[in-house]
Design a protein that fits this description.
alpha+beta, about 270 residues, 2 domains, elongated, Beta-Lactamase, 5 helices, 6-stranded antiparallel β-sheet
Amino acid sequence: MEKEPAPISKKVEEFLQVFKKGEEFTQELLKENEKLRYRVAQLEEVTKFSGREGTYKMHSMEERIKFLEDENRSLIERYRVVEEENKDFANRYIEVESENNNLANLYVASYQLHSTLDFNESLKIILEIVMNLIGAEEFSIMMLDEKTNELTIVAQEGMGPEARASVKLGEGTIGAAARSGESFYREGDPTDLVGVDYLHPLVVIPLKIKEHVIGVIVIYKLLVQKQEFSNVDYELFSMLAGHAATALFSSKLYSQSERKLTTIQSFLDLLKEK
């Protein structure tokens, strides 16, 4: 019996532990760097004005005040520059941390897709990826029957009874995307929906093995907290187009071969008994 894969969220958390120590060390470096930059700026200004002060003697209180005002303005400007530099370092750190999270999501999604040869388990994993990593609320996985040229829902999440169970190849937005093999993204704000329109989905991702389409993933509605698609979403769409197709195709072939092997074995057992 196959070991059931761990939930994607748990696998992502485990994978992120690889980056955690590096992130903590980077945060410490950023803090120390900020302190040092402020200290260097302060010392530079003190040295500069000490040199200037030593070149001439103050003849009046007005000159001394003006000297101190100039020093103060220069320090404020220098601190402002250092503060901007520190913000830039912090922003770069956030970008790196985001990239690490995206990398973890992509790695775990790919790993999970190829962790089983059970067709139904593969479907569950794809549903979990689309729901938890992309943030879809209503969506379906449709497989193409090459005998009837129809796309039929084999798994879905959150869809109402008015959804069509099958679509002819080339028919409507879904059928057209399946025929062309090109992904479809509806224009406009993905959250700007009065109600779900099953004839006009947000996204249609053809599942392809090379150029051969075996099915599609169709997204109709996003979760409330999902405001827009990010760069990693498009990376996941691209990955699903190939990896999900391969996982489903392989698991389906494996299931069929297992059934044939069982049938042949039963036949051989029957012959032995006779």
